[in-house]
């Protein structure tokens, strides 16, 4: 290959990847370096940065609010993983039975996924208010009302209900794709062998859905660490700090307590915990699936 | 003629080249923006050599966040409004704002001209004045006069016992309650419940000793207020969740609110508003009968940022605006919020606005409305008050004394 052509190709290649490299350097590299600087320093948005070594990391170990939030996140996960898995699975199974207007049903469920968090938070808080429509029905039937957002444990559950409503359409599609990937021949073979519907579902469909179910579990886990709008709008982190989430704490620490350095450490430790949990889920539940 | 035109262009070009340029951030509120734009346009005639660019505080989750981000990026304005005292204390702590004491006697002349000597005293941060308060929204109770009349009352309740009395008559658990006593569970809600009741009971005494950095609400007043909250929940006279718009739906007899709700309520619930009685916050039974009742002031002001190279020009502008009573009249006309001055009820210039019963009630309370404690840890302190004082009382998880003692200990840990 002539030298000039080689040089031309090299230049073209560099130009092509240059855009990506530049983008990565500005929007990923720079914030990452800045994050590292912040974690080992004290800064208050104004003035000079002061190096404080591991002080911010030491503080987080004795920060009772942070560990309260960690427990809250586990509490959210304890509701969200089963709720989203069961509802998404039911949705996917139901979608498989829909003969007409399937795209319309899919679209209807996905609308929740793209709707504004602030808007639906206001809608749900009115729906579940003590004199809202849901409680009026409950009161008419049972003579009592349910403290959806004012009881510590029920508030967590109610927020999980909202999140499940928002994501069931999206996660349901992931599971639906998993269901479609299961070859009919496997099901038919099981039927010939005399397996009933329950056996086919528990012994064949569910195990073969493992990749989809694990994917949804991982997505829910990462989503849980990022809950912000619903508790911020409805409960303000209460009652008894039970709906306080890592993101609310980071936001308050950075912009209300004027301590971006500690907020960065909270973000970093939260990300590490989230990553650890995702790896644990994969190790415990991920199975290699083959349709052969 | 052509020569004159050329001269005018030349002079204005030279003037604008040498003009003092100021950047002013105003609250993200259409009414306040309209007020400041019109004031700045007037000022241009007085001082053509000063160019003030009025910009709304950029969109963010809060004004505080936008200002901090701008400070970090070096894009902060010369001065801004919409600053509450807690945020001012934080900004002063990091050296981001400069104190008005720098302007010496000129500052005090302005304070005198605007009749705000007593008001400005509660804005002192570490012995200095960093904020020029613009408006003061006293928090007052609204009562359903129509429902109270049905119960046989011809005036709003004044003391805790009177509230227990009306609540006992009106309450049907799970259906309707006496009053909304707790504003919510967010940190800022403490301004509108415990702190407000504490100011009312103690004649405006601060709940934090800022010099010693100690919480001091574990006194007789604090105990009385906490007992009132506890009794209301214990007797089912109020509830943790009262639903949406309970006041207008007739689910409660009374609630606390600020003047910002007047216009909205008049438009949305005009029939209810015809029968609304406005009163100061409730006080303990032994509170002197004719003494004025203090309340909490949701109040905001102006600050000048330390990095500004034209602090004098900024102060001259502020001075020009607020030494003229016309500016405050215009403020009322546009925003319907009471300016932070003590003569609203006595100055004939404001007489015409006093015909509105709601504005009158709020304006008369301005002189007795106290802002929050000027501390840099407002959020943590009030979150702790929520977790260790208000919630244990609401959920009846603790007795009054234990809740107060525990919250005092936790708040002091933060302040230490």
**Averaging pLDDT over every residue of chain A, what do you get?**
91
Mean pLDDT of chain B: 91
**Strand tally of chain B:** 15
Total of domains of chain B: 2
Low-confidence stretches of chain B: none
- Indicate the radius of gyration of chain B in whole angstroms: 23 Å
Task: Give a quick account of the main beta sheet of chain B: strands, pairing sense, barrel closure.
Answer: 7 strands, mixed
In CATH, the topology of the largest domain in chain A is named MetI-like fold
Percentage of residues assigned to helices of chain B: 40-55%
Structural class of chain B: alpha/beta
Uncertain parts of chain A: none
What's the CATH topology name of the largest domain in chain B? Answer: D-Maltodextrin-Binding Protein, domain 2
Structure characterization notes:
- By secondary structure, chain A is mainly alpha-helical.
- Chain A has two domains: 2-39, no CATH class; 63-285, MetI-like fold (Orthogonal Bundle), CATH 1.10.3720.
- Chain A is built from 13 helices and two strands.
- Chain A has helices at residues 3-39, 55-61, 64-97, 102-114, 117-127, 133-142, 152-181, 184-192, 197-208, 210-224, 229-234, 246-256, 260-285, and strands at residues 41-42, 50-51.
- Chain A has a two-stranded antiparallel ribbon with strand order 1-2.
- Chain A starts with a helix and ends in a 7-residue tail after the last helix.
- The mean pLDDT of chain A is 91.
- Chain B has 416 residues and is of the alpha/beta class.
- Chain B folds into two domains: 15-137 and 298-370, 3-Layer(aba) Sandwich (D-Maltodextrin-Binding Protein, domain 2), CATH 3.40.190; 138-296 and 374-415, Periplasmic binding protein-like II (D-Maltodextrin-Binding Protein, domain 2).
- Chain B is built from 17 helices and 15 strands.
- Chain B has helices at 2-18, 30-46, 63-73, 85-93, 104-113, 117-121, 145-150, 160-170, 194-202, 220-234, 261-268, 270-273, 311-322, 325-335, 357-365, 378-394, 400-415; strands spanning 20-26, 50-56, 79-83, 97-98, 124-125, 128-129, 132-138, 140-144, 177-179, 208-209, 214-215, 252-257, 276-279, 295-305, 369-370.
- In chain B, a hairpin with a 2-residue loop joins β5 and β6 (128-129).
- In chain B, α2 (30-46) runs antiparallel to α14, α10 crosses α16 (378-394) and α16 packs antiparallel against α17 (400-415).
- Chain B is globular, with a radius of gyration of 23 Å.
- Chain B starts with a helix and ends with a helix.
- The chains are: A mainly alpha (292), B alpha/beta (416).
- Chains A and B meet through α12 of A and α3 and α16 of B.
